[in-house]
User: What shape does this take?
Amino acid sequence: MLYTLENDIAVLSVETYACEIHSFRRKDKDIEYMWNGDPAYWSGRNPVLFPHVSSPQDKILNFKGKDCKVNNHGFCRRSEFEFVEQTEDSLLFRLADDETTYAQYPYHFELLVKYTLKENQVFIDYRITNRDEEDMFFGFGQHPAFNCPLVKDKTFGDYCIEFEKEDVEGGRLDLSYELFEQYPTYIVNEPESRTFTLTDGTNKVVMHVSDQYRIFALWTPHAPFVCLEPWVNTLDSTEDVPFEERPGNIRLSPKEEYRIGYSFEII
Assistant: This one.
């Protein structure tokens, strides 16, 4: 089911399936900023990456000594979230473990996702609680896809990503499909930037991330969109290592809660 927030400046719509934004628009511009999930290119839109970012080649991860068949980027992207509540400016959704998730990730957990609309900016906050009786390990990240080009008189190559710091040469990365032929996923490890801007010089998506995100990735399958992806971590290339022993994973004690969030504004 689709739920909508609206103010004097913008309209935001979020779907319970995958807890993805389906639309984010300004009232003063005829622009849809979010990718529409066309399966001819990629059926995703802006999935939550949990309990791991990426996946091993054989799609098998070992949790607590048991091999589990997993999907790329975890199961949230194929899960129906529960709608919890709506206020004047926010939406709250919930996902908890069930038989389907437990087969892929044998932990008891709760994931709350809150969307808050403030003027032309959406704040997305996550709360993950370990409801198990033992320590819980997981990875986490975001994967939002934005239309590129944003307007009909532009092309993909008219856009760039501006970095707050010089994490790339000159603090600017010009987009081209040739770039993604060379780097299918363009990754910046440990960026100093906390703000990343997709822009054609006029229209912009400005993303702000917390210090918890240690990786920034860009991806497109030669399509009219680009994903700006802040990750806390990702699976390393080591195979046949228990998930709990993989470096960079978040560790939560029983009943402990992990909080993280990011935001983006449309200009």
Remarks:
- Residues 160 and 227 are 12 Å apart (CA to CA).
- DSSP finds two helices and 22 strands in the chain.
- The chain has one domain: 2-266.
- The mean pLDDT is 96.
